[in-house]
Amino acid sequence: MNPDNTQRTLLLIGATGVVGQRVLAQALANPLAGKVIALTRKPLSPHPKLLNEVIDFNAIPEEAPWWQADAVICTLGTTIKAAKTAERFRFVDYTLVAQFAALAAKHSVPCFVLNSSMMANPKAKNFYLRTKGEAEQAVKNAGIPSVVIARPGLLDGQREEFRLGEEIGVVASRMFNPLLPKRLRSVKVEKLAFVMLQEALKAEPGVKVLESEIFQ
Predict the structure, then answer these.
(1) Which domain holds residue 94?
(2) How far apart are CA 205 and CA 193, in angstroms?
(3) CATH code of the domain containing 82
(4) Does residue 1 sit within a domain?
(5) pTM for the full predicted model
(6) How far is CA 157 from CA 9, 54, 186, 204, 214, in A?
(7) How many domains does one find in the chain?
(8) 3 part of a folded domain
(9) I need a surface site. Which of 149, 157, 158, 189 has the fewest CB within 10 A?
């Protein structure tokens, strides 16, 4: 926990995605985030608090100074359409997540916050939900003292990549959200990022699963 409001060093993985961009922006603006380390494939815009490490995600550095962080926030994720193959999708959404969790545990990072998906389940028949569920299990089993799993539903936020199906879903959800149970409503990305950031700063011991209605 962070009762004394001391500054934290946060390690962000996936800072260029729709959720990761919001987490990064909010972390840079939050006075409790003293240093923000972002691991990316391409350089980010500079900021006084930001340490941007451009790495090869096919060969994650196992020894680096930036592993000395107070919390990892992982927002890695893709789609099968973008990944082109099921194997590549699984590499991003499961293999990389599991590798980062294992390395965080190795370097005694006390907290790991993962952006997953509503209905994620390692036993699901659906490939996407099963992969997400397996990634959750990998993080839970890594041996990190504080684990937070965020399970948002449909994300309502501006994407660089246009996804017709999701855009239609978001427009429909904005119309019908007031009529739906909270767990089925679309999630504002800004709220999701805010909750994930606060959980990383608190780093409460144990495993916490945050279902979609929490992000309303």
Answers:
(1) 8-215
(2) 20
(3) 3.40.50.720
(4) no
(5) 0.88
(6) 26, 25, 10, 28, 17
(7) 1
(8) no
(9) 158
